[in-house]
């Protein structure tokens, strides 16, 4: 069993030594632990510091590409390194690396494919009330979209089994955490939760500069999650509501204006126009739902192919036997 611990870093020379120091050297059930530092265009001595402390594997972005891409590239590199389990932590020493053995336990025991550390955000002293509120709200809506029960949707301390990692394809620029949670759940991987206590803050979060930015980004992520994974849950209710609201003035027009009782007199053309617009809107929404659903199905097929391509290019041992077994 090989464990690859990946640490995305953007200028983390000051805190990376603390992270590396607290990573366990030996874990029961694991034969080999390898570290992978993802240097996302750092302008400081992150790489030199990591090298001096014994890190051998680097994935280097010569310019900053953002955490989402760092995560995606890192995941592929870890798979290519032959990881059976992949752990993700941060370079700012926010997470307690000493808990990695507990984090990977559900995967080692075959109980889960994804383990997400729960920061228990409601108890973190330096989080403002507003931050806590939106954290809670965002997590609730995400769970609704994903059909999960994850208490901390954006936690950056996670473990993935190889099987789960092969199936994750986050596409958005900043929402890899929520996206991969949804993808793992939708692909039928059990998700386990590990409650943790975060380390004292070493610096401000650079990902979330303000609550409003966080809300804006989370809203886009969640709407996109619905469109991508449960389009009918979004478009069909909208279509039904528009249909009902549109029918009222239209029926009213038909009864009043087309009935023989009022052959002349005031007409209700406004009703006809408004009703027609709403019903056309309802039809468009319904059609969008159908198209989005077809695209969702296509994406599933594409992802299956992508998984096979990844397996063959990462030299997965099981691939040949699986292909023989499943013609
Ligand atoms: N903010 C940010 N972090 C990055 C980037 N690329 C890699 N990282 C690393 O991703 C981790 C998360 O960033 P951080 O600022 O701690 O945000 P947090 O998730 O809110 O704690 C850190 O280890 C960073 O060094 C990037 O483009 N922006
Ligand atoms: Mg952090």
Summarize this, please?
This protein has helices at residues 16-22, 46-52, 67-80, 100-108, 129-146, 162-165, 176-186, 211-229, 231-258, 269-313, 317-325, and strands spanning 2-9, 32-40, 57-61, 85-88, 114-118, 158-161, 191-195. The protein is of the alpha/beta class and 327 residues long.
- SS strand fraction: 5-15%
Q: Which CATH architecture of the largest domain is right?
A: Alpha-Beta Complex
Could you tell me how far the N terminus lies from the C terminus, measured between alpha carbons in angstroms?
28 Å
Give a quick account of the main beta sheet: strands, pairing sense, barrel closure: 7 strands, mixed
The kinds of small molecule bound in this structure are:
guanosine-5'-diphosphate, magnesium ion
Describe this entry's structure for a reader:
It is a single chain. The protein is of the alpha/beta class. The protein folds into two domains: 2-226, Spore Coat Polysaccharide Biosynthesis Protein SpsA, Chain A (Alpha-Beta Complex), CATH 3.90.550.10; 231-325. 52% of the residues lie in helices and 12% in strands. It has helices spanning 16-22, 46-52, 67-80, 100-108, 129-146, 162-165, 176-186, 211-229, 231-258, 269-313, 317-325, and strands at 2-9, 32-40, 57-61, 85-88, 114-118, 158-161, 191-195. The protein has a seven-stranded mixed sheet, with helices on both faces. Helix 2 (46-52) links the parallel strand 2 and strand 3. Helix 5 (129-146) packs parallel to helix 8 (211-229) and helix 8 (211-229) packs across helix 9 (231-258). It starts with a strand and ends with a helix. Guanosine-5'-diphosphate (GDP) binds at residues 8-10, 12, 40, 64, 66-67, 70, 90-92, 94, 156, 205-208.
């Amino acid at each position: 069993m090989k464990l690859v611990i990946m640490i995305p870093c953007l200028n983390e020379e000051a805190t990376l030594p603390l992270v590396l120091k607290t990573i366990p050297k030996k874990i029961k059930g694991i034969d080999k632990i390898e570290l992978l530092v993802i240097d996302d265009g750092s302008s400081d001595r992150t790489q030199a510091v990591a090298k001096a402390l014994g890190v051998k594997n680097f994935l280097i972005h010569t310019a900053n590409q953002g955490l989402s891409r760092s995560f995606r590239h890192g995941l592929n590199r870890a798979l290519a390194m032959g990881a059976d389990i992949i752990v993700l932590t941060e370079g700012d020493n926010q997470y307690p690396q000493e808990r990695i053995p507990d984090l990977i336990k559900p995967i080692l025991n075959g109980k889960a494919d994804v383990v997400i550390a729960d920061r228990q955000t409601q108890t973190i002293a330096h989080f403002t009330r507003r931050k806590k509120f939106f954290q809670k709200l965002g997590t609730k809506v995400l769970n609704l979209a994903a059909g999960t029960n994850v208490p901390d949707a954006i936690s950056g301390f996670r473990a993935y089994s190889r099987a789960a990692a092969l199936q994750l394809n986050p596409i958005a620029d900043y929402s890899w955490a929520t996206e991969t949670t949804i993808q793992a759940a939708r692909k039928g991987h059990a998700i386990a939760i590990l409650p943790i206590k975060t380390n004292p803050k070493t610096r401000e979060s650079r990902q979330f500069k303000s609550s409003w930015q966080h809300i804006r980004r989370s809203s886009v992520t969640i709407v996109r999650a619905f469109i991508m994974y449960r389009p009918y849950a979004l478009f069909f209710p909208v279509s039904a509501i528009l249909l009902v609201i549109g029918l009222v003035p239209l029926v009213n027009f038909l009864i009043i204006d087309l009935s023989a009782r009022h052959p002349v007199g005031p007409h209700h053309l406004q009703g006809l126009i408004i009703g027609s617009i709403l019903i056309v809107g309802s039809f468009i929404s319904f059609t969008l739902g159908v198209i989005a659903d077809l695209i969702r199905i296509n994406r599933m097929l594409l992802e299956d192919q992508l998984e096979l391509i990844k397996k063959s290019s990462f030299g997965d041992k099981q691939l040949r036997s699986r292909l023989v077994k499943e013609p």
